[in-house]
Automatic annotation (TrEMBL):
<dbReference type="InterPro" id="IPR005273">
    <property type="entry name" value="Ura-DNA_glyco_family4"/>
</dbReference>
<dbReference type="InterPro" id="IPR036895">
    <property type="entry name" value="Uracil-DNA_glycosylase-like_sf"/>
</dbReference>
<keyword id="KW-0378">Hydrolase</keyword>
<keyword id="KW-0234">DNA repair</keyword>
<dbReference type="InterPro" id="IPR005122">
    <property type="entry name" value="Uracil-DNA_glycosylase-like"/>
</dbReference>
<keyword id="KW-0408">Iron</keyword>
<dbReference type="GO" id="GO:0006281">
    <property type="term" value="P:DNA repair"/>
</dbReference>
<dbReference type="GO" id="GO:0051539">
    <property type="term" value="F:4 iron, 4 sulfur cluster binding"/>
</dbReference>
<keyword id="KW-0479">Metal-binding</keyword>
<dbReference type="GO" id="GO:0004844">
    <property type="term" value="F:uracil DNA N-glycosylase activity"/>
</dbReference>
<protein>
    <recommendedName>
        <fullName>Type-4 uracil-DNA glycosylase</fullName>
        <ecNumber>3.2.2.27</ecNumber>
    </recommendedName>
</protein>
<comment type="similarity">
    <text>Belongs to the uracil-DNA glycosylase (UDG) superfamily. Type 4 (UDGa) family.</text>
</comment>
<feature type="domain" description="Uracil-DNA glycosylase-like">
    <location>
        <begin position="28"/>
        <end position="173"/>
    </location>
</feature>
<keyword id="KW-0004">4Fe-4S</keyword>
<dbReference type="GO" id="GO:0046872">
    <property type="term" value="F:metal ion binding"/>
</dbReference>
<keyword id="KW-0227">DNA damage</keyword>
<keyword id="KW-0411">Iron-sulfur</keyword>
Length: 196
């Protein structure tokens, strides 16, 4: 079994935090293990809990559309969440749940070694980089401990807001332009340096 498959099996049977009691299915990350980018959301919603796959509901459609707009198919990338089980009533996962679950994300990153980690929305921004106010920092490229991160809004924020759809779509295009530049060994400019 490959290493990502091992994580997946561990997530499926995980009982490390109380969210296992109310979930229907755990939602392991999914996608291309050779992807240049990992997308990190908050936590599964109702559809994801039902299907056991990340971003398959309304927010997922927005993410897929943004990817298509950038000429990228969902299958080409790797998509995951900070927390792998649905919090009841879609509440924001608490600190204990995030801290308990974060080893899985850490290992997904270690295995895939993405050029850029794309942080989707405030919860992921806070969990992964300790940040807040994603609307202020979206569209920016961050470097921390030699890892690059790209910040954008959560796709769910675009569901009832047409203006934010173009924000998301433009950010995702910028993300893949940055990836192309990195692959061509061009020097990209870092917007924010985080020190740990
Ligand atoms: N929202 C998330 O943050 N993650 C999902 O997988 C679906 C919706
Ligand atoms: Fe385990 Fe994470 Fe699910 Fe909690 S949310 S039970 S830590 S997989």
């Amino acid at each position: 079994m490959n290493q990502l498959e091992t994580i997946k099996q561990n997530v499926i049977k995980c009982t490390k935090c109380d969210l296992y009691k109310t979930r229907t299915n755990s939602v392991p990350g999914k996608g291309n293990f050779q992807s240049d980018v990992i997308f990190v959301g908050e936590a599964p919603g109702r559809n994801e809990d039902k299907n056991g796959e990340p971003f398959v509901g309304a927010a997922g459609k927005k993410l897929s559309a943004a990817l298509e707009g950038a000429g990228v198919s969902r299958e080409d990338v790797y998509i995951t969440n900070v927390v792998k089980c649905r919090p009841p009533n879609n509440r924001v996962p608490n600190t204990n749940e995030r801290d308990t679950c974060k080893e899985y994300l850490k290992n997904e990153i270690l295995i895939i070694k993405p050029k850029i980690i794309c942080v989707l929305g405030n919860t992921a921004f806070n969990s992964v980089l300790g940040g807040s106010e994603i609307t202020k920092f979206r569209g920016k490229l961050v470097r921390k401990d030699n890892q690059l991160y790209f910040l954008t809004i959560h796709p769910a924020a675009t569901i009832y807001n047409q203006e934010l759809i173009s924000t998301l779509n433009e950010d995702i295009k910028k993300l893949f332009n940055l990836i192309t530049e990195l692959k061509n060994n061009k020097i990209v400019s870092i917007d924010i340096e985080y020190t740990s």
